[in-house]
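Hey, sorry to bother you again with one of my protein questions. A protein chain has come my way and I'm curious about its shape. I'm sending you its amino acid sequence along with the backbone structure tokens. I owe you a coffee for this, so here goes:
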Amino acid sequence: MAKTTKPQIRVLLADDHAIFRDGLRKLLDSDEDITIVGEAQNGAECIKLLAKLKPDILLLRFAHAGQRRPRRARRS
């Protein structure tokens, strides 16, 4: 009987801090069911990668100095 392979969970990481993305990547890379398909450092890059890579999950966190509430990324 052939062994069935479990589909990978495709994740896009989006954060303006490289050190935070690196830490998440190291954590998630240890899970064999997860594949990091890309990383974005800003909203515009995130939108482009979402359209191109079509991940299953987007882990999104952007911090902007002086901003009280997060803004939605908008398509141009």
